[in-house]
Amino acid sequence: MVDSERAVIDETTVGLLEAAGPQMYRRNAFRITGLPTTADRRAVRQRQQRITPALELGADVDLGHSLPVELDDIRGAFDRVLGDPRRRLVDELFWLWDASSSNGTSAPPATCSCPKSLHADHDAAVRAHSAALDLEVENDGLSAGQRLAEATQLWSDASRLWGQVLRRAVFWDHVRHRIAVLDDRQLDESVIDTFRDALPGTLVKPLIELAAAASAPADRVRLAELARQWPLVPSGTVDDQLEEAAAPHYESLRATARRASSQLDGGNWNDAATEVYDHALPALALLESLVPYARHRRTASARNDVAVLLNNCATAAIGALGPAANLNASKWFRTADELATDPVTRQTLTTNRGELRDMMETFRQIQSQVDALVAAGRISQARSLLLRVKRQLAGGPGIDEIDRMLLDLRQWQPTTTYRPPSRGRALAWAVFALIVLGFLAANITGVFDGDGDGGSGGTGAQRGTAVVSAQDLTDNSPVGACIEQESDWQVGEDEVATVPCDQPHWGEVLAYVPLVTSTSALMTAEYPGINRTVALSRFRCEQALRQLVPDNEGLMTKYESPLEAAWSPSASERARYATCVVHWIDGSEMVEGDVVRQTTPATGVPVPMNTFSEKIIENAPVGTCIQSRIDINVVTADVPIVDCSESHWAEIVGYPVLYEGENATQRVWPGDKAVLAKAEAACAKVVPPGGGGDVVHTTWPSQSWWGVTADDSPIYAMCAVSRADDRPTVGGLR
Questions:
Q1: Strands across the sheet with 650-654, in order?
Q2: Mean per-residue pLDDT for 437-458?
Q3: Is 513 in a helix, a strand, or coil?
Q4: What is the mean pLDDT of residues 192-220?
Q5: What are phi and psi of 505, to 5 degrees?
Q6: pTM for this structure?
Q7: Which of 26, 191, 450, 617 has the most CB atoms less than 10 A away?
Q8: Distances (CA, A) of 68 to 72, 91, 303
């Protein structure tokens, strides 16, 4: 490339960069001056000489538009048209080609050989795009307003029309024609390649800037998704640009984390945690709406950093206060667990939360022993017990709790009544557990040097019982507990009898899996019904097995689903989970080497599930996704199902019932055409409003469904949504 060609390209790129942004049409020189894009230099100068002096004198001049422009804006617009043909050509491309000038003067007749449809399509694209940008600029919080539907249609038209125009070879012939008409040595054919490469990115840049500047989370999500769908621009490129636009938000979060870390280093863990809740979490929420962690590793890393910070606040509080830190530490651990994206961080949090529960149980046992001694009138022995524990703690965490118990003893006077203590043996265990436990909650700094294998089974399970169905999943015993025989696993029971995992056993607690996620709009906070709850439980447990034990041949899961009460307003979101137990399919005994160990979970591992079984409850759940493209009317068994946060082809949106009631043998086959029409209409209704899916796929029942089954099972359709181009995508319908 010679220097003259490079100069042409560089100046053209500068012009495109100046044009890019939400104000690209409002700053357009032809729109501001009211000139047609085909105006020659003489016509430009005549209009400049007519309106500029009038404006300088303060006269009211009709420019043909209502844009808020100053005299300097108009001067700059004329300079842009007259000054550099490369900058002028940029403005021509982003304004109307066939419209008359705004002052009523007809545009010079077009001399290009373009088909009329090209000019019409180009101008339609400009009108839709400029109207969409005007609407966004003039309306804050558009997603919550009454004009959202209008904006949605304008953006759809703008992206479609610009995509069509830029794909037409005659568009570039028009650019070549305009270069010839302008006849300036500063323009040559090299500018066409620059336009071809840079125009799609210039057109999508306003969406990226609008998304980054939006104050409402719904607007950020909407605009960022529109940018990712813009034609001729790879979604990965848009994601990179969104991260660049989000740089100030990342830096703000980093500054908040530094402040909180400094406070924590100074021993002010409460102030550090307050900094996180008041500033870091809102900053993360902003990033999540713009650059969600499921798509952006940088956001995932930022979430994990905040989780580490909260973990360290909790461990610092526990180390200093012991049981007195329980309320705050539990809250901080819970939030950290929700934020953590790194498997090692998650495992450390699981360990720390378990150790906090163990510590609280230890002090509860001590308190119970003291209460028993007081009830027996053995006040001096209770005091001796507490003093012995205090000596063994040697000033460590928990000393304040022991002092509180000693203070409470002062109100009691020794009596001569004697009764044997009801929990004599608990004392030895409690003191032993307290000393051995040692408050080992791990500050994550330095923990990541290990291999991350927390060994959640094996040595952690003791003979006794494990809590596996608490109202809050965080109150359950750690995963990995070993169940001696199948009859011990009773659905509906909060606890299960366990044995040490080095002994033969029937099964192991694999996971506690949340059923509802924010990935799919179809997974709501409302009770989804028994069919979807059971299907979700089966999918989540199968997913956990395949992710944690990829080579799971011969293994299967049993699960316990939550009842409808878990979705009541008073219930915690953490009540909506399933408990998963893994065992050998043939019922063989498991041994120590079979203990499920939660190492780094595999991702993208599909779960083979049916999509059109005889009963809806046997199908993959609504809100999950089909991993790869299939013919859903042919392949309905062992379909690869993944969470919609993974790359997938289509999302399952519903199983609407078409016919129900009487026995299937008494039903009359209505004909294939009628069934198909009914199925397609039903599927159209279950697609979420504004879901954005391009193609609705419908699986409908054939005549064989009539008169074959002897029960009154409903006859239904299966509905899924995919992109029109069948390309894989990430994230559920919004």
A1: 607-609, 639-642, 625-626, 650-654, 718-722, 695-699
A2: 37
A3: strand
A4: 90
A5: -150, 165
A6: 0.53
A7: 191
A8: 12, 19, 42
